[in-house]
Design goal:
- The chain has 981 residues and is mainly alpha-helical.
- It contains 45 helices and eleven strands.
- The strands form three sheets. The protein has a five-stranded parallel β-sheet, sandwiched between helices. A three-stranded mixed β-sheet has the order 6-8-7. Strands 9-11-10 form a three-stranded antiparallel β-sheet.
- Helix 5 links the parallel strand 3 and strand 4.
- The two termini are 14 Å apart.
């Protein structure tokens, strides 16, 4: 979710990659060619970058550019004799007669019939074919010398005809070699009897030799290559790692994968880095697919069968297993020979353990996807039967093969075994994937659904589609599976948990209330359901009702498993602290380090929840410690979703504590993370974005951002999720004097808090609501509000609400026309905020203290305080507030210098701004203004304004013309209509 115009740099057009990871090789080439003659051999597999290296070399050798002849060997079944050399020489001269060729050049007539009138007569027929060929080679050498060619470059010589290879050997064997050679080839495609082996194995007679073997890129090299395609912008480490894993660092595969993701709008900027929207899979680019299938088509039938078997197996396998899976493709000997041919082609490899697999994952995928589905299913079934005899049993592989073979019973058996092993070893992410697939695709009976759903670590589920699919499977089991009452109760229990994870809190509570009466058969689950009902998330249920459930849980004398007891403890501590109950801290203190794999996730959740509660209470050092513990566990055990949620809370904490450096980028990244964060979780970073805009003086962007966030909160979250954005937007509009707006914005949230009784949540709302009531002349209501707030947080060690209460009391005194008393109360409030520390609110209260002193004609005390406040706001980066204070100081005769702030809003002139580029990219993908508005969290009117501005800048008069213009200019890469949806 994005909130408003981006502060990020221009969205770069996709570009050709720079030369990355080849600095050593390029330097070696330059050094070798600076001392001719030399024979240079560059070898490497398809897509490794041989041609790019040669291109870079030739461009770097500017003085020698006119003395280089570049030839290429085409991939044709029957290459033309000496075709690469002839085709390169033909355009090198327009007037062959000027070359002054000897009579030997007559031998060239068959190769260059168009030069017949300028060539000498054909020489007498040689005594034998070898002599004739030698005569021809000497003639070609002569024309190269007369053309002053000093470097002959021949690419892809593994495809060269025999005569061309003989000619290259001829040049390399000359005692006084006059022409340097540079050839490139794929070693895996050289036939055992190829003449190229002589060229690569023998030292040239009259020249030095350099042999370079190009290797794939490492992870930093992969990141650097992608960055070079994105105008030098940073690529996230996670993206670079998974891209390297999928492409093995093969430059062609990296480039084409990035282009494919770009075309499908599957890349986005988070903070200062480019990431992929979904990191789990990378499709096979068409260019890579075509190269792989072309190579495989040149192999024999048995070798192709080996490629298919290895593609289905996917994991490294012993050669005897591959041979068995190949059946019924011939007898064992012919199948083994086919496997040897496939390995010899370079598509497969055999490691030191004798295990066979593809050299590159994308090649494996390309071959797999090309297998017809019925044939693929049969191969999977053979693979499953072969692997069933393996010890220990490879249950994960067996689950996959039986699934793809269509054997549901065996698939379910092995998948559950595999998930159990993953959970036992702490690999919860793998377990989630396996169980989700089984529950959503196997059509299981209710008893199996209940058992398997209970094993799913819900906290690790991510992506709206996975939640939707699992919810559908559970409802299907309820409606069509004929469950028993106890099974129905357990299914509803899990539906309620799932609804909570998707932040559908009210529906979640309703479902859990329906489930509880049918859970008597499982006391532990029944207690968990009670604890669940004690959580005050997203519901209008009064706090007393939640508290009754939480205290009932503590009184239930039930013997339960340690992991269930931990789950209840984490939930109970979270619920009590959310309700503002001090006893929650004692419960939270019992959340210890995990002792088993099953406890890790709950401990991580527990620390994060404690950090979040500590933030609400204003116990910031405790919040930061708890969040650090949660982050450490999430990083160690790869709980990606929990780590991201922890980053949301940390961003909120950084806003409150004044740690604003880099916060805008982090908040935008979090607000836009639809992969790992649900809509309600994205509200907080979006609010932080709006607050930063407001503090920096960009009132229009702040208002639009916070208004859109409040709309999202009303749509997706419970009433409590509207409290903070309503308070932030109200404070902004109160500063603009829009009192009626403020009262309207805060009326619903304050009524919700009054009914629920959770006044500890009123920190952002109570001060602005109280001041608006006073400004509207509703003095009694303001006093009642402050009294209710005070009663609601009394006896709580909650510094943040108490600081807000101090501000409320100062506001009351200010409106009683007692500026000195108000100044003293604002000073106390400022001290309370600073003690948290929450420096921005401390400075705002200092400003109000100073203004009260000015009203009391105590400028000697007020002006130094205002000067100090101005300096503090300037240092913090609160530009808008600092300028307001600066104007007051200047009006009072105090000369202060405007700070030199950086990072102001950039003027883009005729170039598209980052937000205009965001809009245009989605427009190219076929989205309407309303769809674009929903994706970018803007209003349709704002989108229309961006489209109109882009059309004006690019001088077009329609949306279609705009789409065509930006694609043709390379500003945005074209994608199929609807690809962004």
């Amino acid at each position: 979710m994005s909130t408003s115009d981006s502060d990020a740099r221009d969205l770069p057009a996709i570009a050709s990659p720079g030369l990355v990871g080849r600095e050593h090789e390029l330097a070696a080439l330059k050094a070798a060619l600076s001392d001719p003659p030399v024979v240079v051999l560059i070898e490497g597999e398809a897509g490794i970058g041989k041609s790019r290296l040669i291109q870079e070399l030739l461009e770097a050798h500017t003085p020698a550019r006119q003395r280089v002849l570049l030839a290429a060997c085409p991939a044709v079944r029957q290459p033309f004799t000496l075709g690469p050399v002839v085709d390169a020489i033909r355009p090198a001269t327009e007037d062959v007669a000027r070359l002054g060729l000897s009579g030997l050049a007559g031998a060239l007539r068959p190769l260059f019939p168009e030069w017949a009138s300028a060539l000498p007569p054909a020489p007498d027929l040689a005594e034998d074919a070898a002599a004739a060929r030698h005569q021809l080679f000497r003639a070609i050498e002569e024309i190269l010398v007369r053309l002053e060619i000093r470097l002959l470059t021949v690419e892809d010589v593994h495809w060269a005809d025999e005569a061309s290879l003989e000619f290259l050997l001829f040049l390399a064997s000359r005692p006084r070699q006059q022409v340097s050679l540079l050839v490139s080839y794929r070693p895996e495609e050289i036939a055992p009897d190829s003449l190229l082996l002589r060229l690569s194995s023998r030292q040239p007679a009259g020249a030095a030799r350099l042999r370079l073997s190009l290797k794939p890129l490492d992870v930093p090299g992969t990141a650097a290559m992608v960055s070079s395609m994105l105008d030098g912008e940073r690529v996230s480490d996670e993206f670079a790692t998974i891209l390297h894993d999928r492409t093995d660092g093969l430059p062609l595969a990296v480039e084409e994968s990035v282009r494919l993701m770009w075309n499908r709008a599957d890349m986005t900027r988070r903070g200062d880095s480019w990431v992929r929207q979904r990191l789990s899979e990378i499709d096979v680019p068409p260019t890579v697919r075509d190269v792989v299938l072309e190579r495989s088509a040149r192999l024999g039938p048995a070798a192709q069968a080996a490629l298919r078997a290895a593609a289905v197996l996917a994991d490294p396998a012993p050669e005897e297993a591959v041979v068995e899976v190949m059946a019924p493709a011939g007898d064992p000997a012919s199948r083994l020979a086919g496997l040897a041919e496939a390995v010899g082609s370079g598509l497969l490899r055999e490691d030191q353990r004798g295990l066979v697999s593809y050299r590159h994952m994308l090649a494996c995928r390309a071959v797999y996807e090309a297998i017809p589905v019925p044939q693929r299913r049969a191969i999977h079934l053979r693979a499953a039967h072969v692997l069933e005899d393996t010890t220990p049993s490879p249950v994960a592989q067996l689950a996959r093969h039986f699934r793809e073979a269509g054997d549901t019973t065996a698939w379910c058996r092995y998948t559950e075994q595999s998930a159990d092993l993953a959970l036992a070893s702490g690999d919860d992410a793998t377990a989630v994937t396996l169980l989700h697939d089984l529950l959503t695709n196997a059509g299981l009976p209710p008893a199996d659904v209940v058992r398997l759903t209970g094993k799913v670590p819900f906290h690790l589920l991510s992506g709206h589609e996975r939640y939707r699919e699992l919810m559908h499977a559970l409802h299907l089991a309820l409606e069509t599976g004929g469950p028993t009452p106890s099974e129905a109760g357990e299914i509803r229990f899990h539906v309620a948990r799932l609804l909570q994870q998707t932040e559908s809190f009210e529906q979640s509570r309703i479902e859990m209330e329906r489930a509880l009466p049918d859970l008597g058969h499982d006391p532990a689950m029944s207690v968990r359901a009670m604890m669940f009902l004690g959580l005050p998330y997203g519901t209008t249920t009064p706090a007393a009702e939640h508290l009754r459930w939480l205290r009932r849980v503590a009184q239930v004398p039930v013997s339960i498993a340690p992991v269930d007891r931990l789950n209840i403890r984490v939930g109970r501590a979270s619920g009590l602290l959310l309700l503002g109950e001090e006893e929650g801290w004692a419960e939270a203190a019992l959340i210890a380090d995990p002792s088993t794999a099953a406890e890790r996730q709950q401990i991580t959740v527990g620390h994060h929840n404690v950090g979040h509660m500590a933030l609400i209470w204003g116990r910031y050092p405790e919040a930061r410690r708890a969040l650090a513990l949660a982050a450490g566990l999430a990083d160690t055990y790869q709980y990606q979703k929990l780590r991201r949620k922890g980053q949301v809370t940390l961003a909120h904490l950084d806003w409150l504590t004044g740690a604003w450096d880099g916060l805008a980028d982090r908040a935008l990244s979090l607000a836009g993370d639809e992969e790992l964060l649900q809509p309600v979780s994205r509200l907080t970073p979006a609010v932080v974005t709006g607050l930063l805009y407001a503090a920096r003086g960009d009132q229009d962007r702040a208002d639009e951002c916070l208004r859109r966030v409040l709309e999202q909160a009303d749509r997706h979250g419970g009433a409590e999720y509207s409290v903070e954005p309503a308070g932030a937007l109200a404070r902004l509009r109160l500063g603009a004097g829009r009192v009626d707006d403020v009262l309207q914005l805060t009326d619903g949230p304050i009524r919700f808090l009054e009914r629920k009784g959770t006044w500890i949540w009123a920190t952002e709302l109570a001060p602005v609501r109280a001041e608006a009531l006073l400004m509207a002349g509703r003095i009694g209501e303001a006093g009642d509000l402050v009294d209710a707030f005070a009663a609601g947080v009394r006896d709580r060690r909650a510094p943040r609400p108490h600081a807000a209460l101090s501000t409320c009391r100062a506001i009351l005194a200010q409106h009683q026309d007692d500026p000195l008393s108000a100044a003293e109360l604002f000073a106390r409030a400022a001290d309370a905020w600073q003690g948290l520390p929450q420096p921005y609110d401390a400075l705002l209260n200092r400003e109000r203290q100073a203004r009260c002193l000015l009203r009391a004609d105590q400028s000697d005390a007020a002006l130094p305080l205002l000067t100090e406040t101005f300096q503090g706001l300037s240092t913090l980066g609160a530009r808008g507030d600092a300028e307001r204070v600066m104007h007051t100081l200047r009006a009072s005769g105090v000369g202060v210098k405007r700070p030199s702030w950086h990072g102001g809003r950039r003027s883009y002139g005729d170039q598209l701004s980052p937000r205009e580029l965001d809009v245009v990219r989605l427009l190219v993908g076929g989205r309407t203004n309303r769809e674009i508005a929903g994706a970018l969290i803007l209003s349709p009117k704002t989108v229309a304004r961006h489209v109109e501005t882009a059309m004006r800048k690019l001088e077009v008069s329609s949306r279609t013309a705009l789409a065509v213009k930006v694609v043709e200019a390379g500003v945005v890469v074209d994608s199929p209509a609807g690809a962004h949806r």
